[in-house]
């Protein structure tokens, strides 16, 4: 196992920001073109090319799928120059492929890096997620509570009425009962079409975003990335893997998951320090999207380090032909 002291997050963070930037730039010309696969592949190719320039011994633990499903950036793939510290890599080369194809808000590229063997190797299955921002007692809400009970508990902790709580939920038929239960308290439901990593991040800055809580079923890999973001920004998240069939249970076993009913906290999913970079593809509430200016294209990247709790916003300009 890599000694965490070898993980120079300050030095590595700027390189990680470039990885996210180049992935966003690569799929820029595909915004609004209706081709999700082409946009995703462009981001994947650019992200891998940049990762292989970094002085790391990296292993992808959250990626585009298993080796036989993805040509590159698959789970278990080794990236980097082979020098430097051993690190875990979790990535979503294009969070919001549909959003990009339709030129809708909140598409971004995101990547996280942590010392080797410190990030949950989550299989590509659903995860039941619950997240809130910082400043609350531990476990003030839980996955064992009903949606109504969660809203009421958070309202008590905030010293407000349930009607003053806003919960973000993915707009899916499977969530209708959750939505109805939340609204029965008088709380507001903020529905999103895609992009639940950004949605969880909104909880960390509720005074600016107006989002107090996130809940619902979404991808387990995205849950790990969201946990990394909250490790940097502050907040709590819990996740429990859910399985639809034996094939998905076998996928979990292959990933080393033995307790199929375990509830993972933020610090279970990311056990050590982590750095995260996210670059906007389309305009969103976390980062601005690509901007085409006369002679250049501009990106905005947010770079976070859990060690310091720092969040840096960076503007990058690239010349256009």
Brief account:
The protein is 31% helix and 28% strand. By secondary structure, the protein is of the alpha+beta class. The chain has two domains: 4-117 and 274-319, Fructose-1,6-Bisphosphatase, subunit A, domain 1 (Fructose-1,6-Bisphosphatase, Chain A, domain 1, 2-Layer Sandwich), CATH 3.30.540.10; 126-269, D-Maltodextrin-Binding Protein, domain 2 (3-Layer(aba) Sandwich).
Description:
The protein has 321 residues and is an alpha+beta fold. Helix content is 31%, strand content 28%. It contains 10 helices and 14 strands. A hairpin with a 2-residue loop joins strand 12 and strand 13 (296-305). 50% of the residues are buried. The model has no long low-confidence stretch (mean pLDDT 93).
Keywords:
321 residues; alpha+beta; Fructose-1,6-Bisphosphatase, Chain A, domain 1; D-Maltodextrin-Binding Protein, domain 2; 10 helices; 14 strands; globular
């Amino acid at each position: 196992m890599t000694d965490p002291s070898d993980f120079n997050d300050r030095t590595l963070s700027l390189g990680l920001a470039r990885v996210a930037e180049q992935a966003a730039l690569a799929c820029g010309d595909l915004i609004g073109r209706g081709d999700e696969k082409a946009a995703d592949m462009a981001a994947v190719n650019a992200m891998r090319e940049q990762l292989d320039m970094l002085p790391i011994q990296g292993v992808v633990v959250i990626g585009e799928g298993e080796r036989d499903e993805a040509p590159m950036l698959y789970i278990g793939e080794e990236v980097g120059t082979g020098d430097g510290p051993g690190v875990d890599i979790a990535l979503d080369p294009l969070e919001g492929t549909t959003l990009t194809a339709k030129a809708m808000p909140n598409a971004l590229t995101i990547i996280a890096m942590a010392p080797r063997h410190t990030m949950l190797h989550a299989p590509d299955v659903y995860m039941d997620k619950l997240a809130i921002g910082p400043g609350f007692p531990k476990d003030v809400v839980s996955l064992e509570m009903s949606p109504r009970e969660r809203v009421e508990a958070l309202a008590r902790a905030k010293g407000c009425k349930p009607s003053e709580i806003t919960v973000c939920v993915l707009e899916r038929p499977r969530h209708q009962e959750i939505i109805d239960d939340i609204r029965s308290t008088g709380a507001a439901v903020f529905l999103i079409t895609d992009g639940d990593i950004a949605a969880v991040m909104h909880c960390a800055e509720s005074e600016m975003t107006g989002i107090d809580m996130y809940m619902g079923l979404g991808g387990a890999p995205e849950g790990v990335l969201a946990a990394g973001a909250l490790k940097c920004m502050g907040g709590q998240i819990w996740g429990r893997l859910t399985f639809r069939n034996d094939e998905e249970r076998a996928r979990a076993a292959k990933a080393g998951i033995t307790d199929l009913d375990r509830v993972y906290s933020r610090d279970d999913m990311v056990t050590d320090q982590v750095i995260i970079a996210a670059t906007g593809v389309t305009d969103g509430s976390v980062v601005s999207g690509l901007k085409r200016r006369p002679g250049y294209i501009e990106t905005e990247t947010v770079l976070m380090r859990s060690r310091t709790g720092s969040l840096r916003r960076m503007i990058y300009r690239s010349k256009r032909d």
